[in-house]
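Please check this record.
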Amino acid sequence: MDELLFPLFVKLSGRDVLVVGGGAMASVRARQLAAAGARITVVAPEIREEVARLAVVARRRAFEPSDLDGAWLAVAAATPEVNRTVAAEAEARRILVNAVDDPAHATAYTAGVVRRGGATVAVSTGGKAPALAGLLREALEAVLPDDASTWVEVAERARAEWRREGVPMATRRPLLLERLGALYADGRGAAPSSPPAPGGFVSLVGAGPGDPGLLTRLGAERLAQADVVLYDALVDPAALRLAPRAHCFHVGKRAGRPSVSQRAIERLLVRAARRGQRVVRLKCGDPFVLGRGGEEVRALADAGVPFEVIPGVTSAIAAPALAGIPVTHRGLAAGFAVVSGHAEGTYGPLLDAIAPATLTVVVLMGVGARAGIAARLLARGWAPDTPAAIVLGASRGEAFTWTGPLAGLATAPLPEERAHLPGTLVVGAVAALAAARERPRAAAGDDR
């Protein structure tokens, strides 16, 4: 079992630190230590000039145990054999050792660090995967606000005030959240008013119903050019492989699960563009069909950030189509209505306004609410034997379709192993036209 590391920030300004080694890895640590104000002693037979310039003392010889005398910390950036010796001698003196790229001989580990004003965030893998720590650091850097220094100032003033007033520690965190929230009272965030950096641009891209092959060509091109991708919960992971250069961040929402707020997503888009990055906001289906794309466009416009909207194939049409259900059909339905099944207060009045059997009803995000939706339609006068369908994961290999009467929609058996797939409800005569899901698909390049 791995030993649990104790995270700790230390003050090294004016304190002696020994660096054993004079090559590239020693240079990295020496720069970091110099930035922290440490008094650096370097010991190695050969020492690079840039390392020597950062050191108070440079000893061009082999390591000797007495070099550790007076040191607060040691850095072993030499060969494994030398690092082993340094570690053993330091252990005897109760001095912590950071062995660069040699975790077996280390008792202290550096971290990927993000600094924003007076806030410092660090992440470590205990020396096991420095590259991963670097990627996590970049992810944190993209998420943390540029105005975090303001957060620190607000928190510092509040702390002094609460200490004077004797405010209990347990109540301070929610109070601090209120004060930080007040910085964003306009609902758009307190992002700086500086214009976007050259090249900063946001593309709202519709990902379609799931299969990356159903993305538009322009959408795929924008993914290939992207520096940052913010993607929804139901986006197929294969679509992210179209963005090989980008840092991809999941910002999607699923019912009943913690998620990134809409206002936070908007701030991330603005912030990344203002750093000169090309950003793709990858949204399921079409950005403007129950996707809150309009809110994001407004936030970008208010912030003066250039953007574009690349439509996608909405699941409201694509999911039924992939199950062989046309949403309109001569003699059966001349139109269709699309509603969200997320909240009864929203979909209820809309369903009540549709006369029975006059339109095809398509419900997105409504599988979990299908009992209430069916009951509402039946109470409105829809016939119990009205054809209905549930389509899960329409564009995926594990797609599933149930068809039956409206009266059976609430209790329709769905495979548990596919419950995580995005679902679409279809109610109306056209649902009876559902084609068999086992039909063969034409191979790429075949004429159809």
Q: What stands out?
A: The CA atoms of residues 21 and 79 lie 8 Å apart. The two ends are 58 Å apart (CA to CA). The domain at 317-433 is CATH 3.30.950.10 (Methyltransferase, Cobalt-precorrin-4 Transmethylase; Domain 2). Confidence is low (pLDDT under 50) at residues 187-194, 436-448.
